[in-house]
Amino acid sequence: MALNTLIWVGLACCLAALTIQVFPEAAFRMGVDVSASWLVFGFGVFLILMSAFIGMTGKKCDH
User: Fold this and answer.
1) pTM (global) more than 0.85
2) Residue 35: which of 20, 14, 47 has the closest Cα?
3) Contact status, residue 10 vs residue 41, Cβ threshold 8 Å
4) Distances (CA, A) of 62 to 36, 46, 51, 55, 58
């Protein structure tokens, strides 16, 4: 994945998880496990950190 893609997917995961935490009743009605949203947030942070790490090493992605 390209670095920009990793950053945007990470941001989308973080924003989705925070939206679920802000509106837990609506998320519960849609069938979302509210307590698991922190896992999605953590995954988003992981993707953002990995893109930063890959960017610091200076290696280029093939894609």
Assistant:
1) no
2) 20
3) no
4) 33, 21, 14, 14, 13
The candidate with the shortest Cα–Cα distance to 38, out of 56, 5, 58, 16, is 16
- Given a cut of 50, the residues of the chain with pLDDT beneath it are none
For residue 11, the SS3 value is helix
Nearest to 53 by CA among 10, 15, 17: 10
21/44 Cα distance (integer angstroms):
15
Distance CA 51, CA 15 (A): 17
Residues for the chain: how many in total?
A: 63
To which residue do tokens 């790490």 refer? 53
| Joined tokens for residue 55 | 């960017």
